[in-house]
Amino acid sequence: MSDVDRLLLHVLLLCLMAGGIAGLFIGTLLVLRPIWVLHAGNFVNRWISTRPITRLLERMIKIDRWFYRHHRVSGVLLLEGSVFLMYFYSGQFDKGNLIVRLSKAFPIPPAFAEVLLNSAIFGILLGAALALIISLFLLIRPSMLKGFEQDANQWVSLRRALKPLEISRFYVDEYVFQNVKMTGVVLLLGSLYALAGLTVWL
Questions:
Q1: Under a CB-based contact definition with an 8 Å cutoff, are residues 21 and 196 in contact?
Q2: Vertex 94: Cα angle to 91 and 98 (nearest 5)
Q3: Cβ count near 36 (within 10 Å)
Q4: CA torsion through residues 47, 53, 58, 59, sign
Q5: Confidence of residue 158 (pLDDT cuts 50, 70, 90)
Q6: What is the C-alpha radius of gyration for the chain, rounded to an integer number of angstroms?
Q7: Average pLDDT over residues 99-125
Q8: What does pTM read for this prediction?
Q9: Which of 152, 89, 86 has the alpha carbon at shortest distance from 118?
Q10: Is residue 48 left, alpha or beta, with left meaning phi > 0 and alpha meaning psi from -120 to 50?
């Protein structure tokens, strides 16, 4: 097992242990003081709508007209930026030193830091190559981008995708408070079993 696998497994076990401790605490409250859990549930169960956030994301920002009006200036700037990114991230920086600094700044092994850095560099180079192609179109034939622009500028609303998140679901709460003692005992025993198994595993 590599260092990355050990680190991920250790973090997963710690998260499971934290969940077991929380389940042990809630199960004890359900058995001894269920009214406290009821009051906490009334306080925590607050309706939070995602609509104000999605309304900001769905606001249209049109900059196409500016690009077509100043296609030579925007094409030159985009070309210079993409060429610089491709030149710099193709090997003009100390990759080994950056990996060492990342592994020191964050508690991750150097191999994992190298994977993250290579993925980020690949994404930057891919974006720079796409920007280079678009800049050539802006400089030579900006009208050829109009067909691509019409296909790409499709309106996608988040309301339908996020609609399931806007539905209130109180089935679990109703079942728990109808069978409060039994739920508390099951949660208590399950948490004790999980904590015992995780402790032996660690």
A1: no
A2: 120
A3: 11
A4: positive
A5: low
A6: 27
A7: 80
A8: 0.46
A9: 89
A10: beta
Q: How far apart are CA 6 and CA 52, in angstroms?
A: 41
> Tokens for 86?
């491709």
Q: Are 154 and 108 a contacting pair, CB within 8 Å?
A: no
Tokens (6 digits) for 134: 């678009």
Q: Give residue 79's identity as a one-letter amino acid code.
A: L
Give 149's pLDDT tier (boundaries 50, 70, 90). low
Alpha carbons 146 and 142: distance in angstroms, whole number: 8
The residue ranges of DSSP E strands in 9-123, in sequence order, are none
Burial 81-115 (b: 16+ CB within 10 A, else e): ebeebbeebeeeeeeeeebeebbeeeebeeebbbe
Q: Reduce the DSSP state of residue 7 to 3 states and report it.
A: helix
Q: Is 27 in contact with 184 (CB distance < 8 Å)?
A: yes
Amino acid letter, 71 = H
Instruction: Give buried/exposed letters for 132-169 (b at 16+ CB in 10 A, else e).
Output: bebbebbeeebeebeeeeeeeeeeeeeeeeeeeeeeee
What residues have CB less than 8 Å from 50, skipping those under 6 apart?
162, 165, 166
Here the tokens at position 109 are 């092994």
